[in-house]
User: Fold these one by one.
Assistant:
Number 1:
Amino acid sequence: MSSLSPTNPSTTALSVRRSRPLTGAIRVDGSKNAALPLIAAAAVTGRTVRVERIPRSTDVQVMLALLQEMGYVLTKPVSSSDGLQPPEADKVDVTAPSHPNHAPDLRAAATIRASYYLVPALLQASGRASMPWPGGCSIGDRGMDQHFKVYEQFGDKVRIREDGYEIRRAAGPVEKVTVDLPFRSRGASVAAVLRAAVADCPLTLRNPNTSPEFSAVLAALGTTGWEVCPGTDLIRLTPPVARPDTPLIWEIPGDKIEAATLACAVAATGGRGRVEGIVEADVGPVVALLRGLGILVESQADAMHVQADPRTFTGRPLRAVASLDPAGLDADFEPPLMALALGMPGAHLFSDAINPGRHGNLLAQFGRLGATIEPLTPTECRLTGPQRLTGATVEATDIRTGSALLIAALTAHGTTMLRGLNQLRRGHADLPAKLRSLGADITEVSR
Ligand SMILES: CC(=O)N[C@H]1[C@@H](OP(=O)(O)OP(=O)(O)OC[C@H]2O[C@@H](n3ccc(=O)[nH]c3=O)[C@H](O)[C@@H]2O)O[C@H](CO)[C@@H](O)[C@@H]1O
Ligand SMILES: C=C(OP(=O)(O)O)C(=O)O
């Protein structure tokens, strides 16, 4: 664990001082939002899967603990007591239980949104998944109705309780299934694919999610012999004719959101830095937006080099509109872009209709730093930069509000105290330490 990682995030705050330009190179962790479905996919293969580049963010650790509770065997290299990790520390072998726990204690599933990804593995092991409602970021109503429709298409029975939900596996074999999603939910798309893997039946999925995180799951299934016919409007999956017996090794892609956050932090401080360990296409939408603002970005297959110089700023408006459409911007990119835009000349527009509570969280906290952001609707807002921010006490109400506040704090005059580190750590093992290695003045204060 890094020296900056708080021991008790609920009683610890970060003290962040206005930063000189950040410089240097930094490598991102594996992506939390790709790791979560990939770990759940590993759980339904019926084989041992080595999952590599597992981030140490707490949501991912909760996911692994839930699998263990279900009886899965997790094998990983020993850690050392001095906090230094062996080079193999981010690899875990996931092996299905020979004796599943048919009554697992899944209360921790209520702390993460992605616990819904475990339903197919539970149906496979016990024929029944009884789960608390998922938790995660508090960013508005986050439904699961499309997940339930997916399971019903497979013939499963869904029961809604006040405190959670229960799915019972269809009694007989499932021949083939077509799922037609009304919108491109990432969670429901993964649910359909993993449920098909458990049923061992062909799947046609219309209007699928098109995120790299979902594509990573499709690619992983491909390594187990599934035939995947991908497409933007329709995906077809066919069960393996022959199951390859080569070892299954899945590497989690670099975290595109952490990369964008670091790039925005470098740019916001007028710095110059290299963010490594990414997939170029995954950060493409953010690179285009940064370039539109006049930030120089050199993009490579696994890295991006960012340089901000006020002399090249365009003053053009940034339009960051989150959407599930194939060409749309991932909603999790929006908060760091908003933090950056506060310091960039121009009138900038933001919209996140996917997460109706996101702007409420962000605007309230940026407001404490003295930002003026005009809400146009509950999910759209406009701001004009550059603005002068002043350090204050702020709260990471959700993961991305926390990371956006870190960026804003680096540009605010004086000192900012950031509380709510448990939220930040749900998504990033050590984002403050990464920023510090680029020159940020961030310390941990425990009460
Ligand atoms: C753990 C994880 O990977 N979380 C990501 C996941 O969240 P999340 O699970 O919310 O994402 P989905 O794409 O599945 O859903 C997007 C939105 O659609 C609505 N919805 C979804 C499913 C459903 O059955 N019914 C329903 O109403 C909810 O309001 C939800 O907030 O994808 C989002 C992008 O889409 C990302 O911002 C989140 O970081
Ligand atoms: C919204 C997010 O996470 P979750 O869906 O796990 O709450 C996020 O990663 O920004």
Number 2:
Amino acid sequence: MASELTPDQAIQELRDQLRHHEYLYYVEDAPELTDAQYDALMNRLKRLEEKHPELVTADSPSQRVGGKPKEGFTKMPHSRPMLSLDNAYNEEELRAWDQRVRDALPSTEAVRYVCELKLDGLSLALQYGAGSGKGEAHGAKDGSAHLVRGLTRGDGSIGEDVTSNVRTIRSVPLSISAAKLKAAGLPQSFEVRGEVVLPQASFLKLNEEREAAGQAPAANPRNAAAGTIRTLEPNIVAQRRLDFYAYFLLRDGEFLLPQQSTALDALKTSGFRVNKYVRALKSIDEVVKFIADAEPLRDSLGYEIDGVVIKVDATAQQRRLGFTGKAPRWAIAYKFAARAGITKLEDVLFQVGRTGKVTPVAALAPVLIGGTTVSRATLHNADEIARLGVRIGDFVQVERGGDVIPKIVEVVEDKAHPRGTKEIVSPKNCPVCASELQRIEGEVDWRCVNNSCPARVREELLHWSARGVMNIEGLGDAMVAQLLGQSAELGGESQVVTEEGAPVVVRRPLIHTIGDLYRLKREDLLGLERVGEKTADALLEEIKRSKKAGLARVLLGLGVRFVGERTAQLLAEHFGSMDELMTAATQDSEKASEALEAVNEVGPKVAQAIVEFFAVEKNKELVKDLAALGLEMTAEKRVTTSTLEGLTFVLTGTLPNLTRESAKEKIESAGGRVSGSVSKKTSYVVAGEEAGSKLDKANSLGVKVLDEAGLLELLG
Ligand SMILES: NC(=O)c1ccc[n+]([C@@H]2O[C@H](COP(=O)([O-])OP(=O)(O)OC[C@H]3O[C@@H](n4cnc5c(N)ncnc54)[C@H](O)[C@@H]3O)[C@@H](O)[C@H]2O)c1
Ligand SMILES: [Zn+2]
């Protein structure tokens, strides 16, 4: 207990804890604490250090930014340290900061503040110059600027070179034409700092994939973004759809323009994405109002924010205000309160998913958190339950962020919140079909491996009928439950079973497989609760209509691991029929992978999943059954537009965004060839600004000419 320690010992202990958690957060991208918990520890340390200034050391976490750079990346110094921001947690602290700012400046001077959203991602420094950093200095002659290097913040002084990953982010311009630089008032070399964020939709998709692959889900979009930008595989980064928002503009380590507000304008003009919620304001009262307006945006932005950053607008004033140890005095981050609440864990339910994965779900006494009633939270798996040490009857801290499923953060224990007594027992058998659960070596999850488990069939049916898949209206929770012989009342909960046992089966199931859907008769449906003639006819019509959905939808509906909408579409277009796909996937494994990986965007992981899917007898039978039932299993075979097999390209002039190398890379990775000279055999000439004799030759030979946009379209 801290109270028994000397201040020196207490400080040491807090520092050790903070360093440990910083390591997990910054280096491993796998925090164990929420930010609120970490901030609380940091604030304890800061208060102790304030009381005992003689104990403050330069290496204290209160004085330093970030973590150590990760192995595997080249380390590069920053042009000027990338600092942290001091925080204000309420209006009083914010007003105190405003007072300090005004006290430090002559009273005759007006102070203007720029308010920006505090994007919850990680910061990057992007250096631009005449050369692309990969050889040739394209911009040298035409005055354009090129992305030379992208660095993470690292420890604030030294960052990690993640240039090849940064190049895959669509909102980072790879080059900026001389004309645009001129319009924005930018020189040819400069530095942009900003935030990389992972949109919530990409985050949810990533976690679905991680779960399907038996990996632990990422804790939050920030950590997922940090993990992504620091993977060593640029093609993975490209798939994740990271976004970059620019907010600082520098040159040689100094702010380039006399105001932050004009810097944001210049960034926008030159083609960077600048967040649209920006305001330059004249008083702290207006700032308080901006913050109040910004907080409710949290649920609708599509990316996470954790506060508002307030900066002194004038660079000259910033210079006079200067810095403390690890943060500027001229800026402050107003942090929104964590959306959290304390409630009682009433029970733990075990849910069986489509893949058989059993997930413990907390049933909570309903509690209002950030305007939403929360009564369920995920407990992920047995490891997570053990880590939390949670028991039924405990009071727990629940946190909710953006669209993310509520999560139990910790057990609360004090006089008002006594501990629960009932241990959570993970079932040894499937709570629905009673078959013994299994755990694949190296995975944390337990799975029901019974392919005909009603819980799994239920999830399969719901997936099959879902919007964007087979689109069968009227086949939702309640109807599926009834078709499986369960009570309609159970609806979404029918597979959620407590210790008391499996869902009540009230009648003989009408269907056991997806194929059975297409054998349903009118009189079957009329026997169900609350199903009249109109409902029955409408559902049968919908089911019939779905037979025409086509191969891509069927593939998607089958729920093969990693095969999402786009992959299903590409597979359908490549093979043209289910038969051809099955033939390809069921030959010996080396040939199968080769045949499947010939499809655009299909890598070894996806290929493997397809092979495994068709190796299961039940799946093969289902596909045959569906074909016999008259479902459309063909698609128009199409050489997808991004396959440039057999085509030859010549590049000339300067493209607005792509460098010569990256255009070449893109063409080659899509199977095309890039040549240096134009001939009759050239398929396309890609011409940019100031294209010369090659363009003339193309025109005289009648070779097709593309601009950058045309090339990108061809690449899909
Ligand atoms: N959970 C854990 O274990 C753990 C461990 C370490 C740190 N943390 C968290 O990390 C954060 C501390 O790290 P920090 O030093 O990055 O501080 P910070 O995140 O509080 O503030 C600084 C950062 O804000 C970002 N930012 C977003 N929008 C901005 C804008 N418009 N203008 C300028 N900057 C903007 C930048 O990336 C900048 O580096 C805290 O939130 C802390 O809770 C958590
Ligand atoms: Zn089961």
